[in-house]
Amino acid sequence: MNLNWFLLLFVCFIGQSSEEQRQADDVKIGAIFSFGTTNGKVAKIAMEAAVVDVNSDPTLLDGRKLALTLHDSNYSGFLGIIGALQFMETDTVAVIGPQSSVMAHVLSHLANELHVPLLSFTALDPTLSPLQYPYFIQTSPSDLFLMTAIADMISYFQYREVIAIFSDDDQGRNSITALGDKLVERRCKISYKAILPPEPMSTRDLIVAELLKVKSIESRVIILHTLSITGLRVFEVAQELGMMTSEYVWIATSWLSSVLDSTSVSTKAASSIQGALTLRPHTPDSQKKRAFVSRWNKLSNGSVGLNAYGLYAYDTVWMIAYAVKEFLDHGGKISYSNDSNLDSFAGETMNLAALSIFDGGKQLLSNILKTNMTGVSGPIAFKPDRSMYRPSFDILNVVGKGWLRQIGYWCNYSGLSVVPLESLYAKPANRSSSTQRLDQVIWPGQTKIRPRGWVFPDDGRPLRIGVPRRVGFRAFVSEKEGSGVVQGYCIDVFLAALKCLSYPVPHQFIIFGDGHKNPSYTQLVNMITAHEFDAAVGDITIVTNRTKVLDFSQPYIESGLVVVVHVKKMRSVAWAFLRPFTPLAWGVIAAFCLVVGTVVWILEHKFNDEFRGPPKKQVVTILWFSFSTIFGAPRENTVSTLGRIVLLIWLFVILIITSSYTASLTSFLTVQQLASSIQGIESLVTSNDAIGYQVGSFAENYLFEEVNIAKSRLVPLGSPEEYADALEQGRVAAVVDERPYVDQFLSTYCGFQKVGPEFTKSGWGFAFPRDSPLAIDMSTAILQLSENGELEKIHKKWLNRKVCGGQSSEADSEQLQLKSFWGLFLICGVTCCFALLVYFCCMLRQFKRHFPELTQRSTSTRTRISHSIRLKKFLSFVDEKAEISANRLKRKRMEMENLSTS
């Protein structure tokens, strides 16, 4: 009996020793999560399944088992720290978690000290830097990529401002900061940040108070970045407050897709989220994924559905297992050593000295970062910055009762697309705007029409639009006498632009000014920044100082400062008849007259008796013929064909020249000339003359601040009548004003003229508060008016473009330049040269017939010396009359015939 008891005790001892030895050989890993949350429940089931699958292969860890210990932090950061300390006391090689980024920032310091890798697929704060936390690894795409995807969506839908609602924790704040940075890159921004307490402190009353603030803001594009309980509560409150209508755009981060993938929400919650957009980490379809999904109901007993983070949880365990295998295969031993920094805590009640450093932690960390595997979530690898390889998201639209409908994909490689991502990776990266595309969205309110994304302030109150009450140039903007109704070119353009918008704009015009003088436009635009007006419409110039505090629409009319002066009739002078041509032009005309006369004389001299006689007579003939052609056909007749051709071309040139001279001289004798020496802004600056400007215009500040003209020289003028009186009476030497006003003034008043070039370039636009979305829409509308011709019709209706009778431009008074006629002179010159060439060729041929003995080639010295005689003979032949040459040739032929007969 005693022997049996002894044997039994021995067997139990041996078994217990074996169990203890087996447990000692286990590879211990820990997991810290709040297992009451959706992601916590899914992660627990997935990690336990992964451990079972790892341990089912005894060769994977060289006969060892993977031992997973779970610690429920239950939303408490304190309990999370306690759990981490317990893991560090029990020789844990790696810890999965924590679930929140708040705890990740804390526990990463512990992991750094004890060299225990910390892996999390839910703590995705973008600021968890590998430089600061080298032992912390995110095993799913960081929120930096999530926020980049959202920023791309905002840009794709052409929104410019968004409101961010987020939980006040590390991940919420830092992720929204990353979103703001990405939006700025796309010329968008976060206009308001609504901050909610983190779970579980976020109560319904706090949410109501914050959403009421959001409702009063113009922007209607809302980004919701919270945890699931708070997020669903926000949607329910928003629906009660009327914020789930077709005016709003709601984009929830990946928490919403995780909830809808894993749990069944209430009918109230399902109704409140309809039309929202959300994102889900993209996990490509594969045989492994399908096999795991088919096992899920059995693993979970139907308690919770599988979401993307469950797949990442499963793969994270396998990442650790493969890293440990690599570690063991290369001779690594799981051993721990005391941390000398904790020796001073030995014997204390907390016994922190029991914490030990994992000797192989650095190598295990390196093995994890070298992971290159395909898991249930797809290909898994890390870039040098430790970000996930090819981070990507599914873009989902909530329709029906909480049903998710996929409308596209986002990947850091190619942006937004409706093409499956796996096929995009085989092509070159292309993020051009033409390739960005998403399917049709069902927005809140069950509409397919994209919401405008903003509303007018104060819940639809009509816009208060300031309009200047002008006393001069009333065609641009004015008030009908005592009626309070405004009209004019600027008003018609504004109303036409409003008609181009896809939404109504309630507004009321508020007249600004006392009616006795033009109001200050600087004061008018400043009233927008003071929120007394919501916009300003009128002849408002877009200048630098105003664009610093306001937004302007696209200019609807070009403008710029010009100088206007008084003009008078030119006094008659003795030599006024010479003014039409420049001296060079006169000289060239005279030279060509002589050239043409000489050419015609050469061509006619042999055949025409009128071009023969004593030398003195021939010179007189050339001069007379040359200059008589200016006044008509010359008295002398031309008999040669070449002479007639040259004369015909020259008469045509003279016709053009004399016609131009007559027109120019007429202009010079009747044109109005400047009453002062002012030729433009440069001469105005160097003079000491008084300068007029329009009251209320930016011209005063420009002349004083930019051009440095003393204020004592500046004279305010309020109407076109004052312009005319001041210039005619000489109270001002010139008026500086914007081109549209000057054009209207010159079309009404004669005796005035623009001088010099336009020395500023600007335009008129409608003024709006800073970052007003209406400014962008109105700019688009103005471009549309310009393209369809409506803008030009309004211009013709209000603004008279005809120049005052007798008004002439500066160009009209300029002298005619030689360059205006060089083509004619070129034709005439070429004709003369051609005629001379043909003439001398004919003369040379005839000379050979008349004097063959002088034209035969010979190599004798005597012949060579007679070249001068031959030349004299040729010139004599050319000079003699054609009949004499013909008679001589006839006699020579008869002599030759007589010789031949004898």
Automatic annotation (TrEMBL):
Keyword Transferase part of the UniProt annotation: no
GO MF terms held by the record: ligand-gated monoatomic ion channel activity
Pfam family, one: Lig_chan-Glu_bd
TM helices/strands, residue ranges: 584-603, 645-669, 821-842
Highest taxon above the source species: Eukaryota
One cellular component (GO) term of this entry: membrane
Signal peptide as annotated in the record: 1-19
Zinc listed as a keyword: no
GO BP, sorted A to Z: cellular response to oxygen-containing compound; response to wounding; signal transduction
Domain Solute-binding protein family 3/N-terminal: 462-802
Family the UniProt entry places it in: Belongs to the glutamate-gated ion channel (TC 1.A.10.1) family.
Identification of the protein by name: Glutamate receptor
Species in which this protein is naturally found: Nicotiana attenuata
